Amino acid sequence: MTDSLTLRRPDDWHLHLRDGAMLAGVLPETARHFARAIIMPNLVPPVVTGAQAATYRDRILAALPEGAAFTPLMTLYLTEDTDPDDVAAAAASGLVTAVKLYPAGATTNSASGVRDFDKVRGVLEKMAEIGLPLCVHGEVTSPEVDIFDREAVFIDTVLDPIRRATPGLRVVMEHITTANGVDYVKAGNDDLGGTITTHHLVINRNHILVGGIKPHYYCLPVAKREEHRLALRAAAMSGTSRFFLGTDSAPHIDALKENACGCAGCFTATNTMSILAEVFEQDGKLANLEAFTSLNGPAFYRLPANEATITLRRGDAVSYPDKITTGAGPVTVFNPGFELHWSVQ
Ligand SMILES: NC(=O)N[C@@H](CC(=O)O)C(=O)O
Ligand SMILES: [Zn+2]
Ligand SMILES: [Zn+2]
């Protein structure tokens, strides 16, 4: 049995760092293992302009622990008022790596997102022209669509029409949770990629609901049936270049998770690499872990893979704290519900 595994340093292609005391508390958890991350712009207020992205990047860099080698890759939050020229300038200067599309009301802090997709046509066309990727939270928000169907309906009614209408637009379907998402990404061309979270490889909807409601397993898009989890595992472990890691590590303080109206988001930054090594090993796919965490994402974003490496070692069970403390309050670390044996050296 393999007990040591050296990989190029991983990147996280979908990460929430928040701001202020929460940023200071969670950033070290990611910077410990990851070289780069795509930073989500759903702050309050959202990161909409190039100028806002520049000051947010400065706050992230200022919060980095001494000596940490971590590069935040910034994104802009797409609104119906986004100026195509501001986006193009922010991309040309190297400040932003992608633009983020939230359908209005789909998830945490998405109220400023898009309602009428015709209003962002000019921005999407500019992005297609300059090759700037669009990261998509792929769920419809119509009240009549069942929450478990919202991703599949989004693909057919929003995403596919946008891609057909905007040839050359590069799209990352983020945090895919269904076999439909897997199939759609597989069937696409090289302008389409899909990120998969750590937690969606581990939990299905039973984990959230059976035996009592588990708020720390609630995230959006919500975990689906077991057959979907298995499709995600197969995709993540296939080595196929279209699929790469985006943890969607999304910290909320416990008081807002363990609440009558609990926030969506799982916090996985602390133990993601251990969990991934364990699940890839469970399925006999450790050889494809590096492609998923360290190679496929840079290839899609047309960035070099990291030169530095990390080494994972298998040993006796490793444990992680149940919570991390932040200046904003305690944040519960995702519990995969099985023993972990791999740790990053
Ligand atoms: N994934 C989540 O459940 N929550 C994210 C938002 C998002 O990525 O949709 C958050 O910002 O908390
Ligand atoms: Zn999302
Ligand atoms: Zn997210």
Automatic annotation (TrEMBL):
GO terms for molecular function: dihydroorotase activity. It catalyses: (S)-dihydroorotate + H2O = N-carbamoyl-L-aspartate + H(+). Keywords: Hydrolase, Metal-binding, Pyrimidine biosynthesis, Zinc. Zn(2+) 2 binds at residues 100, 137, 175. Its cofactor is Zn(2+). Pathway: Pyrimidine metabolism; UMP biosynthesis via de novo pathway; (S)-dihydroorotate from bicarbonate: step 3/3. Binds 2 Zn(2+) ions per subunit. InterPro entries: Amidohydro-rel, DHOdimr, Dihydroorotase_CS, Metal_Hydrolase. The modification N6-carboxylysine is found at residue 100. Zn(2+) 1 binds at residues 14, 16, 100, 248. Its EC number is 3.5.2.3. Residues 12-304 form the Amidohydrolase-related domain. The active site is at residue 248. Belongs to the metallo-dependent hydrolases superfamily. DHOase family. Class II DHOase subfamily. Homodimer. Catalyzes the reversible cyclization of carbamoyl aspartate to dihydroorotate. This is Dihydroorotase. It comes from Acidimangrovimonas pyrenivorans.
